[in-house]
UniProtKB/TrEMBL annotation:
Primary location group: membrane
Family per record: Belongs to the UPF0702 family.
Topology relative to the membrane: Multi-pass membrane protein
GO CC, alphabetical: plasma membrane
Lineage: Bacteria, Pseudomonadati, Pseudomonadota, Alphaproteobacteria, Hyphomicrobiales
Residue spans crossing the bilayer: 6-27, 39-58, 64-86
Organism, scientific name: Methyloceanibacter marginalis
Annotated protein name in UniProt: DUF421 domain-containing protein
YetF C-terminal domain location: 88-156
Localization of this protein: Cell membrane
Amino acid sequence: MFFDSWFGLLRVLIVGTLSYAALIALLRISGKRSLSKMNAFDLVVTVALGSTFATVILNNSIPLAEGVLALALLVCLQFVITWLSVRFEPVQNLIKSEPTLLVRDGNYLTEAMRTQRVTKEEVEAALRENGTSEVSQAACVVLETDGSLSVIQADGATSSKDKL
């Protein structure tokens, strides 16, 4: 169906705007942690927020107050879990993964790369982004908990950025 009623369009405009404002306010109140680079836990919270937001806007049977409460609940749960993970190591171990070493002293750690499903091409791209032209110039490459790759150059290695 292309068009149901003007009331439906008006509801989406009003509820969407108010829900959006509430979500922005909740995210600002919850702090920068809610908007940081994402690990698996952050991704789940983000998807849940997006799904809840869309449901509140498009489902006529969900009042705005209930939708905002659902958004607030998700943000509060995320805040509580991150608060606990900062204070209690078992909670942190449950929520966050450990960084993984993929290159050591210029040598690929192929088993770690296979386990983490990272290709040599992805490592080489991270090396180039860091201005390192060869894997032999890297002391290590680490797959961080947010999925990014960090490169630490070997002592005495110069990056191509330094040569420019």
